[in-house]
Amino acid sequence: MHRSNDEQDQRSITAAGPPRTTPAPTTPASAGATPSDAALSEAAPSDAALARAAPSDAALSEAAPSEAAPGKAAPGEGADFLGLDPGTAPGGRVTDWLTDRIRAAIGDGRLPVGARLPAGRTLAADLHVSRGVVTGAYQRLADEGHLVGRGRAGTVVVGVPAPARSEPAAPAPTPAGSLFAAVPGPDVFDRLRAAPARIDLTPGVPDLTAFPRAAWLRAERAVLADLASDRLGYGDPRGMPALRAAIVDWLARYRGIRADPADLVVVAGTAQSLTLLGRILAGGGAGRIAVEDPGSLGTRQHLAAAGLATEPVPVDAEGLVVDRLAATGAPAVLVTPAHQFPTGVVLSGARRRALAAWAAGGGLVIEDDYDSEHRYDRAPAPALHAMAPDRVIYLGSGSKTLAPALRIGWILVPPAYRSAVIEAKRYADLGNATLPQLVLARLMADGGLERQLRTLRARHRRRRDAMIAVIAARLPAATVGGAAAGLHLTVTLPLDRPDTEVAAAALDAGVKVHPLSWHRQTPGEPGFVLGYAARTAGEIDAGVALLAAALAAR
């Protein structure tokens, strides 16, 4: 007797599990049009096959441990896939219901184009329905152009249903003028990154095309080959011992710092270091911290978000003016002594000694060793931590040597602050991801990171030289600072309007830059902070040309 699919649906769902069915003969689907036999586990069954597969009323009665309405699944039956529960099918029309649910998931994006659907046999077993129900639903969606069978690749989504009504218009792009407001908002860097532009000359990013993919992949494979399964559980919130030991060795070799791995905490970049330390200081009643002026806007934002007021201390040709620290009343100061951001000056020997003396009197120094690895025309500047290890908290990061996306940094803390930092890190995220730590430790140990640094230095030097030459040609009135090291140049020049206004015009023209005033708390000479490390010589020339055009336009 012929039964419709819906009649079959009503007889397919039992509380005892899927009924045994006789496999139906299949016929190949036309290529590219409908799900293949392999993808769907079976072709759409014929009427005769459906009739043979359908259990009798008596069989259903014997199989069910309790009476249930036709088309309703017993409690607990259903599939993880899309949270499907055949018990919710209206009136037992399970094929219609399943088709509608999958179609809706394709339409709202839960099943995007390219998504693979479960095999028909698997989904039928999960739902406790016959395979014919799933096959019928898949076949209907294939006929509508939403699914296609791709052999062993399975049944995949290839088309999205047309929306019932028109989509809302995309929001208009943020005007550059509002992005470069006089007082930058907390999301200003996110907005600038998202803003479209031909050339990005914002600072702080190395040449990401130079990321050592092959070396990283080899190290990762070696780590996974040696990794015991129990190491995949929660790790030490301080970081993996192998990485902490490797970082301590690196600091001894390249920064002249002697340290105990027990005093080092691995964090998710310098940004997290600032957040953790800011919360510790604010929680201890500090209330304020001294910072360099000009100094990083991003740094100030992180410290302010942690509850600290940032007190500006001037920077001159010798770095932080230490004599002005006492007037701030701040118990702590954050400095970038190796390559001050954004000016690029190095803290002089006299100022270093003065800062160490200030710390010895009870002050706390937070040393952000910004861009210390990227030097071209000068000897390495010693780390402050080596002068006063009990009063200096040292911050480092792999973001400028490898990539910001890795989110790996470190804090070297004096013993007096060790417990507080470890506790803050534990409650922040229980520790960094284990695998990237172990891969970086291997790269540090086998010389891979040192080779990467040499590659970057050579490439960044060429790009720095290219930017200096282009600025000399296109912005002859400009003064360039910070060229001896780092990943950016600071350009100052006489302007007849705010540098934020010029930066907005430059973005409209197609180039992203930082206005120098973003990084000032008190008024000062206008200018721009221009990153060169992530751009080719041709891109640098094009970007500076666009900036010059914005300067010339009114």
Automatic annotation (TrEMBL):
One term of GO molecular function: DNA binding
Region Disordered, residue ranges: 1-87
Biased composition (Low complexity): 27-80
Keyword DNA-binding in annotation: yes
SMART domains for the chain: HTH_GNTR
Family under the similarity heading: In the C-terminal section; belongs to the class-I pyridoxal-phosphate-dependent aminotransferase family.
Segments forming domain HTH gntR-type: 92-160
Residue stretches of biased makeup (Basic and acidic residues): 1-10
InterPro entries attached to this UniProt entry: Aminotransferase_I/II_large (IPR004839), HTH_trans_reg/aminotransferase (IPR051446), PyrdxlP-dep_Trfase (IPR015424), PyrdxlP-dep_Trfase_major (IPR015421), Tscrpt_reg_HTH_GntR (IPR000524), WH-like_DNA-bd_sf (IPR036388), WH_DNA-bd_sf (IPR036390)
Protein name: GntR family transcriptional regulator
Record keywords, A-Z: DNA-binding, Pyridoxal phosphate, Transcription, Transcription regulation
Lineage per the UniProt record: Bacteria, Bacillati, Actinomycetota, Actinomycetes, Micromonosporales
Gene3D superfamilies xrefs: Type I PLP-dependent aspartate aminotransferase-like (Major domain), Winged helix-like DNA-binding domain superfamily/Winged helix DNA-binding domain
